[in-house]
């Protein structure tokens, strides 16, 4: 059973076994506005929790996607390069950014659950 | 997620335009801009708003901008006074004619840019209408007032609000409420009525499209805005699309593409300094500006098209293909009509010819780009047949 955890920077990571799928939340895409460009990391890149892992740009501004946990990039969503608006249309589905092989699954305990994240967003 | 957008908050209390409640009711996302609480976008988003304006008509609340009147006993007296502060030919403005110019400092730097209109009404001869940027208005007014000769007064008009109606359908829409606007030529203005509300209308704007700016008393703003928003061709447009529209049109944004460090020659605004003024001088910074006109400036503003999909934002370093630094991006983003990234910036004159290959240093990588002619999207101003 996959479990999804959230960061205060509005990334999600949906964990299945030792791999997590990372993207930005619906709240994040709505705040960004129309996404026009996504820069993805190279497969094989190692990132530490909090490192800049990808770039997402709207008409107005560039923002970073930070690695929610440490790990190795094992897959990226290359479809976003030609269709960046997928991030707006389906952020938690087809709009995912990358998959990480977790280095230390215990790091997930420091992230918010879905209920905690919803409370966090409701109070922003 | 970390937002790099300008998050500069003003310590001073935030100001609002008379349409603030309407923006909120329309679902706008409000942001602080130049001390005002302003709509950056409505629910449909910047891309849709931008494209709607290019195809239909967009309504912009630009009431944060500064409106003022320069008043003297004759047009000549008012024009001569303003000509000591800017390099446009104000004296030869015809009644109802509008011009774009810049307030210059003694080094030829740009204090602000503004629109100047000579009143069309014979009984208002000696009245020049000024529209300045929101961020600089207090400073601009102080600068102007401190330099006016006896007999010329600056009258601020904070009770007036301003709307821009822009796009290829602006003329047919406005004609339903203000029939005499249809025949106005680009960069002309007149006092008229909208339905029965007194307004001052100019045929100009900041999008590269045909359109109007409508000045109206603040308490009548909502009535005019609501009447326009009720038209099927009109949607409200926020500051986000205003910026992407003006960037595609190659128009400068004060504080970004022009400021105290840039001269009008460097900025490619020589067209706004008419021949008589360029030759006669007699404006602040004339020595530098005339020298730059004769010898060429040290840098020039150019349009830039990145070759890939990555936008290059303000502050991006521009290099020659060999890596030598040759300039900096002053505005950059994504052009929805162009469906591609675009930028403007300053480069050495030797690197300024359209087609010149450049590199943009984005996140440590050199992205290939080329100098491009501006506007990026053709202007569609309404030129009245002679």
From TrEMBL, chain A:
Its cofactor is (R)-lipoate. InterPro entries: 2-oxoA_DH_lipoyl-BS, Biotin_lipoyl, GCV_H, GCV_H/Fam206, GCV_H_sub, Single_hybrid_motif. The keyword Cell division does not apply. The keyword Metal-binding does not apply. Residues 19-101 form the Lipoyl-binding domain. Binds 1 lipoyl cofactor covalently. Pfam families: GCV_H. Signal peptide: none annotated. The modification N6-lipoyllysine is found at residue 60. Keywords: Lipoyl. SUPFAM superfamilies: Single hybrid motif. It comes from the Bacteria. The glycine cleavage system catalyzes the degradation of glycine. The H protein shuttles the methylamine group of glycine from the P protein to the T protein. PANTHER family: GLYCINE CLEAVAGE SYSTEM H PROTEIN (PTHR11715), GLYCINE CLEAVAGE SYSTEM H PROTEIN-RELATED (PTHR11715:SF3). Belongs to the GcvH family. The glycine cleavage system is composed of four proteins: P, T, L and H. This is Glycine cleavage system H protein.
UniProtKB/TrEMBL annotation, chain B:
It catalyses: N(6)-[(R)-S(8)-aminomethyldihydrolipoyl]-L-lysyl-[protein] + (6S)-5,6,7,8-tetrahydrofolate = N(6)-[(R)-dihydrolipoyl]-L-lysyl-[protein] + (6R)-5,10-methylene-5,6,7,8-tetrahydrofolate + NH4(+). Coiled coil: none annotated. SUPFAM superfamilies: Aminomethyltransferase beta-barrel domain (SSF101790), Folate-binding domain (SSF103025). GO terms for molecular function: aminomethyltransferase activity. This is aminomethyltransferase. Keywords: Aminotransferase, Transferase. Residues 299-377 form the Aminomethyltransferase C-terminal domain. It comes from Alsobacter ponti. Belongs to the GcvT family. Its EC number is 2.1.2.10. Residues 20-275 form the GCVT N-terminal domain. It is an enzyme of class 2 (transferase). PANTHER family: AMINOMETHYLTRANSFERASE (PTHR43757), AMINOMETHYLTRANSFERASE, MITOCHONDRIAL (PTHR43757:SF2).
């Amino acid at each position: 059973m996959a479990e999804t955890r959230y960061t205060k920077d509005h990334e999600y990571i949906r964990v299945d076994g030792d791999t997590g799928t990372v993207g930005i939340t619906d709240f994040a895409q709505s705040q960004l506005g129309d996404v026009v460009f996504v820069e993805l990391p190279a497969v094989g890149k190692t990132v530490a929790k909090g490192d800049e892992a990808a770039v997402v740009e709207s008409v107005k501004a560039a923002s970073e996607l930070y690695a929610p946990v440490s790990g190795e990039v094992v897959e990226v969503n290359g479809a976003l390069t030609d269709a960046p608006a997928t991030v707006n249309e389906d952020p938690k589905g087809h709009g995912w950014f990358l998959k990480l092989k977790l280095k230390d699954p215990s790091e997930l305990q420091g992230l918010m659950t879905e209920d905690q994240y919803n409370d966090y967003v409701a109070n922003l | 997620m970390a937002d790099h957008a300008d998050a500069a908050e003003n310590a001073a209390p935030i100001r609002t335009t008379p349409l603030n409640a309407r923006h909120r009711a329309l679902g706008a996302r409000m942001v602080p801009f130049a001390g005002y609480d302003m709509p950056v976008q409505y629910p449909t988003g910047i891309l849709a708003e931008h494209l709607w304006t290019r195809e239909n008509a967009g309504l912009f609340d630009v009431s944060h901008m500064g409106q003022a009147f320069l008043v003297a006993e004759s047009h000549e007296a008012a024009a001569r006074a303003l000509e000591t502060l800017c390099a446009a030919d104000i004296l030869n403005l015809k009644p109802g004619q509008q011009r774009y110019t810049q307030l210059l400092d003694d080094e030829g730097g740009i204090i602000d840019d503004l629109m100047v209109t000579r009143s069309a009404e014979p009984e208002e001869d000696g009245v020049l209408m000024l529209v300045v940027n929101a961020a600089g208005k207090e400073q601009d007014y102080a600068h102007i007032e401190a330099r006016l000769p006896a007999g010329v007064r600056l009258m601020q008009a904070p009770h007036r609000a301003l709307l821009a109606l822009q796009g290829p359908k602006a003329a047919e829409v406005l004609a339903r409420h203000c029939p005499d606007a249809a025949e106005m030529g680009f960069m002309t203005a007149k006092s008229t009525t909208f339905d029965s509300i007194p307004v001052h209308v100019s045929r100009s704007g900041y999008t590269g499209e045909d359109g109007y700016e409508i000045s109206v008393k603040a308490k009548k703003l909502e009535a005019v805005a609501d009447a326009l928003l009720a038209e099927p061709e009109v949607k409200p447009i926020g500051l986000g699309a205003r910026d992407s529209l003006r960037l595609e049109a190659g128009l400068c944004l004060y504080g970004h593409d022009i400021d105290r460090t840039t001269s009008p020659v460097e900025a490619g605004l020589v067209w706004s300094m008419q021949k008589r003024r360029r030759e006669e001088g007699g404006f602040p910074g004339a020595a530098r500006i005339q020298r730059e006109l004769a010898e060429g400036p040290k840098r020039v503003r150019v349009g830039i098209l990145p070759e890939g999909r990555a936008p290059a934002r303000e502050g991006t370093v521009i290099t020659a293909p060999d890596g030598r630094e040759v300039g900096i991006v002053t505005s950059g983003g994504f052009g929805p009509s162009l469906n591609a990234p675009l930028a403007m910036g300053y480069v050495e004159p030797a690197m300024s010819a359209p087609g010149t290959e450049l590199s943009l240093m984005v996140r440590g990588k050199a992205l290939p780009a080329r100098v491009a002619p501006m506007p990026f999207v053709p202007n569609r101003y309404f030129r009245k047949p002679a």
